[in-house]
Amino acid sequence: MPSSTDDVRIAAQTLRDGGVVAFPTETVYGLGADAFSEAAIERVFALKGRPKNNPMIVHVADEAMARTVVASWPGRASRLAGAFWPGPLTLVLEKADAVPMLVTAGHRTVGVRCPDHPMALALIRAFGAPIVGPSANPSGRVSPTSAEHVRDGFPGADPLILDGGPCRAGIESTVISLAHEAARILRPGAVSREDLESALGEHVEIVGRGASSAEAEGAGMLAPGRLASHYAPRAATRLFEGRDWPGVILRAPARTVVVTHEPARVGEPGVRFVRLPESASAYAARLYAALREADALDPELILIERPEGREGLWTAIHDRLDRAAAPRE
Ligand code: TXA
Ligand code: MG
């Protein structure tokens, strides 16, 4: 059942008491806590089992609140916030002293975003201050795009969850660093590089996972959010190209589940399928739920067909597919 205004009021009180609240955003569900309280943030790390070297994004209700967590607000931040906030874009800027080092994993930059979801905005406004919001999943697992996914992730812990229905965008925000001379995308997401370039009027680099750790450091970026095995289903997961079908499925173990956007594949006898839509936005919105459905079939192998699209939102989709299929540490 969708949460009510009363639930939002209770959730804001929980935040004031130093507690943790799961809340919906347009991308994925987040685990909210007072961004200025070390004790509250410790609770989020503990609940997620998150390594302390992975920084958290601070969620704000508007640009004025964003300015309270950064040391300075450059013109480029105004331009991007004006174009994409509220929305799926995280700006990495020099942090204000008041933001605990725990939030930023010891770095001098902070990621800040204003989510485009009425319930997230109502929660932040009712609380009256910024909240951290890592995705509401145990560390390293697939991000939740519904309240039920959040519940499934923390059996026994029973966190307070605001239910805003399924997430519209379905994959995490784009993270762009403005902390250096050239703007750089640290995590591709729902706002595309093309959109960012036209808003900024300059070339924007995507710092890929192939970047050296020195380059990563230079970009004010932290490896953990980009760790290969992030966003992974439980079952072994591999990607395949459509042109390699049907050889791929002939060689696959019996208990294989195929995740595909290609209607022509479905119907192969004896093979279990999870279908994805063909358009990028619908594909992204459904992707994490599809990975969970595939996992729930308890397969020996999950085979995901790589879509042909490469531009715009597809860049972020391929990033998440690569991570889902990356070797585990
Ligand atoms: O869409 C989203 O961004 C979701 C929703 C809930 O807002 N949140 C989310 O948070 O994906 P999380 O914690 O799962 O991912 C945050 C990632 C980090 O892993 C890191 O890559 C990047 O954001 N990040 C945060 N602060 C940063 C900083 N100061 N410098 C570089 N990267 C940072
Ligand atoms: Mg996450």
Based on secondary structure, the structural category is: alpha/beta
Distance between the termini: 38 Å
Catalogue the ligands.
Answer: threonylcarbamoyladenylate, magnesium ion
Helical proportion, percent range: 25-40%
Oligomer: single chain
Mean residue pLDDT: 92
Low-confidence regions: 210-228
Overall outline: globular
Number of helices: 12
Largest sheet: 10 strands, mixed
Strand order of the largest sheet: 7-1-2-6-3-5-4-8-9-10
Radius of gyration: 19 Å
State which percent range the strand residues make up: 15-25%
Order of helices and strands: HEEHEHHEHEHEHEEEHEHEHEEHEH
Strand element count: 14
Describe this structure in words.
With 329 residues, the protein is α/β, with parallel strands linked by helices. It contains twelve helices and 14 strands. The longest helix has 17 residues, at 280-296. The protein is globular. The structure holds threonylcarbamoyladenylate and magnesium ion (MG). Residues 25, 27-28, 30, 54-57, 88, 90, 92, 104, 107, 109-111, 115, 133-135, 172-173, 175, 186-187, 220-222, 224-226 line the site of threonylcarbamoyladenylate.
